[in-house]
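Request: Have a read of the protein record below and say how the chain folds.
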Amino acid sequence: MSLRTKVAGFGALTTDERRLFFAAFACIPLVAVTLRCLGLRRVQALLGRAETPAGEAAQADVVRRMARVFAAAARCVPGGARCLPKALTLQWLLRGRRIATQLRIGVRKEGDRLQAHAWIEHRGEPLLEDRDVHERFAAFERTDPLSEPASK
């Protein structure tokens, strides 16, 4: 994709989407460093303190568009962004917009290696992931005490 195409795509974003882009770009590395220093539970507690009361139910297409803008920002983070900092940052940014999500962490065994992956779900639908993520990774039942309950 050429620079001209990228700039045109950025220009097509709304003001709120541009804010989300820059917030994601800035916050993903900060969350990554904080995770290394404090660990998952403490980071979740820090990010959860800014919890807001439930707002109106967000339309799924609006949430998906926000996730696409977030994903574009994550691709621009120098050195790349790992799944857990991305998931926690997306959850925090959506929570700030009163959109409830659930952090999911799953594992799978590939050969003799154990692999882990983290993602965010909104109303049981994975964001930033293929729909088959549940088939590729066995998710732990519940990983975020501040999120909405998992749908069965």
Remarks:
- Residues 146-152 have pLDDT under 50 and may be disordered.
- The first helix runs from residue 3 to 11.
- Residues 102 and 147 are 5 Å apart (CA to CA).
